Amino acid sequence: MRLLVVEDDPAIGEPLQTGLEREGFEVDLVTTGEAALAAAPADLVLLDLGLPDVDGGVVCRKLRERSNVPIIVVSARGDEIDRVSLLELGADDYVVKPFGFRELTARVRAVLRRTGAGAAEPPQATVEVSGLVVDRRSYSVTIDGEGVDLTPKEFELLAYLAQDAGTVHTRESIIGAVWDENWWGSTKTLDVHIASLRKKIGPDRIETVRGVGFLMPTAPEGL
Ligand code: CA
Q1: Centre of ligand 1 from the C-alpha of residue 75, in Å
Q2: Which of 31, 71, 206, 222 is most exposed, with minimal Cβ within 10 Å?
Q3: Is residue 166 part of a domain?
Q4: Ligand 1 mean position, distance from CA 29 (Å)
Q5: Single pTM value for the model
Q6: Neighbours of 61 (CB within 10 A)
């Protein structure tokens, strides 16, 4: 799920981006209406109405003219705007600043469900595989209750494999998900990270599928 966040205030936009990424969304953050209209297609748009260049309402209408992307408008308290006019502009929902992060993610998920865009469930916040627990909210990993120290990339890699334990992931899909779709580096980086993860979580928790990729067994041998 790719979200486009349009917010010119970095004190709101940046933590919002980080928080939503931890919830498993891909997030593009832009700070102007022009950039919002030029951005790649998203599965949902979070649109601040008070933008420095183009009025947020105009951005909303233009986005709506060219696609059915779900739009949640974010307005400041006191903005002269009501639900009816927002719906006329084509918004699906709105939140008023200041808003709580939980409230916002609940709205995002509700709008995605309602519009059908969220048919594929976002990654769960917590995944457990044979005593190994990956918690995306706190970026923490424990094995039988003991904390494991991981680098951010090791964490992403482990979280990706744990999300679908028992499923083989190709090297390409892992690199695409954990590094970057446009990643041109050596695939050796992946092997290096797999090796260091195995040292930290135990060699049997990640299996190599020769010529294909890797999988995390749901019931690792030797455990
Ligand atoms: Ca603003």
Answers
A1: 8
A2: 222
A3: yes
A4: 13
A5: 0.53
A6: 15
pLDDT digits (tens, 9 = 90+) for 25-76: 999 999 999 999 999 889 999 999 889 999 888 999 999 988 889 999 988 7
Residue 143 half-sphere exposure, CB side, CA atoms within 13 Å? 12
- H-type helices in 123-207, by residue range? 152-163, 171-174, 188-201
Ligand 1 centroid to Cα of residue 76, in Å, is 8
CA of 51 to the centre of ligand 1 (A): 5
Question: d(Cα 174, Cα 199) in Å, to the nearest integer?
Answer: 19
Question: Considering the domain boundaries, does residue 99 fall inside one?
Answer: yes
Domain termination site, one of 93, 115, 137: 115
Residue 80 Cα, ligand 1 centroid: separation in angstroms?
14
Contact 61, 67 (CB under 8 A): no
Nearest to 111 by CA among 172, 69, 51: 69
Q: Are residues 89 and 146 in the same domain?
A: no
- With cut-offs at 50, 70 and 90, classify the pLDDT of residue 117: low
16 — phi, psi (to 5°)?
-65, -45
pLDDT digits (tens, 9 = 90+) for 119-178: 445 567 899 999 999 998 888 999 999 999 999 889 999 999 998 888 888 887 788 778
Give the CATH number of the domain where residue 181 resides. 1.10.10.10
